[in-house]
Amino acid sequence: MNGMTHSIFPARRLGRLMKWPRFCALLGLLLARAALGTDALYENDAIITYPGTVSYPPTIDATNFVNTGTFSINDISQPYETWNTINYTNSGLMSSGVGFWFETQTTSGSQLMAGSFYNANEVDCGYDFVAWATNIANPGTVNMPGIFTTVNPGTGATGVVGLMQFTGQNVDLSRSTLVSAGGQGFAQAVGLYGLTGADTNSDWDATIDLGPASAYPSLPVSSLPPPPYGFGFPNLPLNTTPYFNFAAVGTNLNIIRTVFIQDASPNVSYYVYFDTANLGLGGGNVTVEWRGGYVDLATGNPATNYLYLNDNYIESVATNDAIFNGIPENFTFTESSTPQIFLAPTAPGFFYVFTPGFQTNRFAYVSAQLIATSAGTNSIPNGAITNLPSRIQIGASNELNLALAQIIQPDYLSLQSPHQFDGNTGAQIAAPFSDLNLGVTNGYLAITNLLPQSFPVWCGTVQAWSTRWLVMVTNIVGTNVVAVTNDYRVLLVASQLTPTLAAQVQNLILHGTNTIISDAFNVMRTLSIDAQSLTLTTNAPGNGATSPNGELNLESPNILWPGSLPNLRWLTNNGAISTLNLTYFGSSALPYGAFVNRGGVTNLGGSTIWAQDFENYGTFSSGSGSFILQSLITTLTNGSIIAGGNVSITTGNLVASNLVLQAGQSLTLQVTNQLTDTGVTNGNTWSVGGGSLVGLNLPILPNLPGNPANRSDLAGTTIFMTAPGPNKQVVSTWAATNYGVSTAGYTNNVAIGRLFLDGLGTNSSFKFTGTGTSNAMYVDYLELRDQATNRDASGSNFTALAISPNMVIYYAQAVIDGVSVAEKMNQKNSGHLRWVPQYAGYFSSTNIVYPNGTTNGPFNAALAQSLDIDSNGNGTPNGSDPMPFFVSSQVNFTPTLTNRPPWSVRLEWTTIPLATNYIYYRTNLLSPNWLPLTSFNNYYYSANVAVTNSAHTNSFVSPQPYPSCATNVWVFDVVTNVPHYYRVMVQPWLTYPF
C-alpha cells in the first residue's frame, strides 16, 4: 500500500457540517496537514476496515486515490473524504456507514471540483454519496440504503433519508446501477390517523350494527376527523360484504372471526383468508389480499401486484397497543409482486348470529395511506418534492450518458444535462418524482424510455377497525350444564386503491430544435421546451417501452402552452396532450406551419388554434370551453372534437369525414373554398347543444371554381341540434343558395344529410335565417323531436320552427315519431318548408322490387309511400302500386331503319301521361356532348296520330291524358352520310298540386 496514513481524521466540510465553536481547533489541524505535504498516489490493494483492520479512520492526502481492494469506514459521524485528491478510481469495494464525498477537499478548507471519478465496482454508502468531478464515469454500482429518521420535526413524520449526487462536466453513467434509500419498488403505509381505545358509550350492539350488507364501528363517527380520516370510504354506512369463520376449540370455547369489506377500487379484486398466522405477513388471525392487474409495458405481458393487510385480533384490544408511524401494531401491511398466500380464500356470506346485547369493547382504528415514497409529501417541509428525504441528483454541464443504466426508485430524481444529453438507450430508471433539464446542441433531441409512465406500486387509502370481545353462554349437554365462551373477533375494512402509481415531473425543461417525446410526462409546475418541431410518438408494447405513448399532461393551470413552447411551429401528436386551462396553439400573427393530431388533446378550458395546415385523426376535447380553429387547410378524419362551448372553424378547405363533433353551444363553419364530408359512406355525426342560443352557422357559401370534384356538400353528415328549455330559441344562419324545389339545391350547396331538431322544453324553438335576400337549407332527411313537433291549432304551421322571409328549408324526407310527414309538412310555415320529392338521397331513398323480380331505385321514400300521388300516371297512388315509378327498363327505346322517303330512322319508345320526352343525338361515340334532336316535324302515337312539332324543339309532353296506361310514341329522323347515335329521356311529372 502506497501513501501515508495519519492518525487524525479531519475530513469535514467547513461552513456545512463543522460547528463554529470548534473552528479554531480545526485551523490548527489544517496547518498541521499542510506541513506534511500531499502524496502523488494513495492506492489500497488490501482490506482496510474501520473499526477492524485499522485503529483509526485513515487520513489520506494524495492527488490520486485508487482502491482495488476493500475500503470500509464505519462508526464516524460524517461522510468520509480525502485531502487534496484530484482523481478517484475504485475497482474494488468501498463502504461507509455514513457515506463518501468524492471531491477535492483542500488543506486550506476549500471544496473544489475534482478532476475525475471512476467507479468500476461497488460503493456502498449509508445515506450520503457525492461525486463532484470534471469527468465522471460510473459503470459500477452505488448502493445507498439510507437511514430511518425524523424527516419533519414539526409533525414528527419519519422516513428514510439519503442523498446520492453526481455533478460534473461530463457524466457517464452508462451500465451503472444506482440504488437509493428506500428504492425497493414497494409502497409503504402511512397512518393518516390512528388510535386505540375503548368504546365507553356502551351503545354498540353487534346484532344491530353488523349485518349482511352494512357494518358500523363501535366508535362515534363524530369523534373522528372529517373524511378521508373518518371511517367509511366513501360514506356511511358501509355497503359491505361479510366473511365468517367459526372454530370450536374443545367443548367450552368458540372463536368467531369476521371481516366486513367495502372496496371502491377500480379493476382490483380482494380476498379474505383466515388462519394465516405462519405466513410471515403479521400476527395471523385474518388477512385481506388485494390483487391489481396491469400490463408490463416493457414486455407487453400482463402482471399482478399484491397487497396484504393482516390483523392480529388479540393485539387490537391490548391496553398497551403501540402505534408506529401512525398505525396500531395489530395491523401489518405487505406489498409483493408475487402471491404470498396459497390457501383457498374464504367465500363471502353472513351466516352467524351474534349474541344480543350491548358491548363495551376495546378497538384499534387506522386510516392509512399507501405511498411509494419514503415519506408523504404532506409531511415534508413546504410539501416540496425536492425536500423528500431520499434523492438522486445527477448534473452534467457538458455531457450526460445514461445508456443501460439502472436507477432504482428513489423519492426524487434530478437529471440536469442542458447542453448534450447523449440519451438513455436500454436504461431502466424509476422515480415517483423528478426534475428534468435535458438538451442537445445538434438540434435533435429524442426523449424515449427515460421514465416509466407508471410503477407497480400500491397507492390509495385503507381504513380498518378491529375489535374483540368475549360472551359467556351456557349449553345443556345431556344432564350437564356447560359454560361456553364465545370469542368474537371483528375487522371492518374500507379501501380505495390502485396497483400502480403515475410518475410525476415537477419541472420539465427540454432543449432541441427538433424534439421527439416517447415518454408520458405528468408535469406539476414548469414546462419549457424551446423546440421548433415537437413530435409525441407511440410505442409498441413489448419492445422495452416504458409508456405506450408520448404524453405531455400539464397538471397545473398555471402552466401555459404558448409560454412553455414559445418557438414551436410544427406539432405532431401521436400520443396525448392535456392541460387544465384555455390553450392557445400558435397565434394569429405566427400560426403553426402544421398541427397534426393522431392521438388525444384535452384542454379543459378550451382550445384556440392557428395553423396553416390542421389535421385531426384523433380526439380533441375542450372541456367546458370552446374549440376555435383558424387554418388554411383543415382535414378532420376518423376523429372527434368535443367542446362544452362553441366550435368555430375558419378555413379555406375543410374535409371532414367520419368525424364525431359535439358542440355544447354553437357550430360555425366559415369555409371559403371547399366544405365536404367526401361522400355519404364517410358521414359525420355532429351535435349542437345551442347553449348560447346560437346553433348552426354557415356565414359564407364555399366556392371553389374549376375541378367539379371539389364540391361542397355534407350529404353524409348527421347533425343533432337541441333548443334548451323551457322557452329558449336557438338561431341558425345559413348562406346556401335557393334553387327552389329542385335537385340542383343538393349539389355543391352544402346540403345536409340528416338534421334532427329536438326542442327540450315547452316553447323551445329554432329560428333559421339567411345571409342574403334569398337563401335556403337543403336537407336530405329532417326529423323533429319532442317540443319541436308542436303545431298551431289549424295545423298549418310548426310553431317551434321560425323561418325568416329570406330563408327556405327544403327536405327530401321529414319524420315525426318514426312516421313520414313529408307531404303534410310541405308548404307549411307560409311556404318556407318545402318538399323536394324528385330527390332520392342516401337517407331519404328506398329501393323497390318490382313483380318481374328486378330491383329498382333509389326512389324518394316519402314519394314511394304516398297514398295521394300517382307518379306513373296510371290512376293508382304510389303507396298502393306495386310498380309506382316509370323506370328506364320500361322505356323500351327502339331505333328502326325504314324505307320511308326520304330514307329515315324510326325512334320509338314508351312513355307515361304528363311526362316530358327529350331526344338527343351525337355523331361520335367518343364525344362527351349530346346534341338536341330538333329536326323531326311530327311526333306520333296511338294509331299513327301525328302531332306537329312546329317549334322544332327536342322535347314534347306525352300526348295521352291522365290517368291512363303507358303508350308508345315515335319520331322520324332522316338518314344522312353522318352517323347518328341516339338517346331519349322520359321525365315523369308528379300528379300532385305543389
Summarize the structure.
This protein has 994 residues and is mainly beta. The protein contains seven helices and 77 strands. The protein has four domains: 223 residues; 217 residues, no CATH class; 220 residues, no CATH class; 100 residues, Immunoglobulin-like (Sandwich), CATH 2.60.40.
Describe the protein's topology.
Elements: H1 23-36, E1 39-44, E2 47-50, E3 62-67, E4 70-73, E5 87-90, E6 93-96, E7 99-102, E8 104-105, E9 111-112, E10 114-119, E11 122-125, E12 128-137, E13 141-143, E14 147-152, E15 157-172, E16 177-179, E17 188-198, H2 206-209, E18 214-215, E19 238-239, E20 241-249, E21 253-263, E22 268-274, E23 286-296, E24 301-311, H3 313-316, E25 323-324, E26 327-328, E27 331-336, E28 362-371, E29 390-401, E30 406-408, E31 412-417, E32 428-429, E33 433-439, E34 444-447, E35 454-455, E36 459-477, E37 480-498, E38 501-502, E39 504-511, E40 514-517, E41 520-529, E42 533-536, E43 551-554, H4 561-564, E44 570-573, E45 576-579, E46 583-585, E47 592-597, E48 600-603, E49 607-616, E50 619-621, E51 627-637, E52 640-643, E53 647-657, E54 660-663, E55 667-676, E56 685-688, E57 694-698, E58 714-723, E59 729-734, E60 752-759, E61 765-770, E62 775-786, E63 801-803, E64 807-816, E65 819-820, H5 822-825, H6 828-831, E66 833-835, E67 845-849, E68 855-860, H7 861-865, E69 894-898, E70 904-911, E71 916-922, E72 931-932, E73 938-941, ...
Parallel strand pairs: 1-3, 2-4, 3-5, 4-6, 5-10, 6-11, 7-12, 10-12, 11-13, 12-15, 13-16, 15-29, 16-30, 21-37, 29-31, 30-32, 31-33, 33-39, 34-40, 39-41, 40-42, 41-43, 42-44, 43-45, 44-47, 45-48, 46-49, 47-49, 48-50, 49-51, 50-52, 51-53, 52-54, 53-55, 54-56, 55-57, 56-58, 57-59, 58-60, 59-61, ...
Antiparallel strand pairs: 8-9, 14-15, 17-28, 18-19, 20-21, 22-23, 23-24, 24-27, 25-26, 28-36, 35-38, 36-37, 64-65, 67-68, 69-70, 70-76, 71-72, 71-75, 71-77, 73-74, 73-76
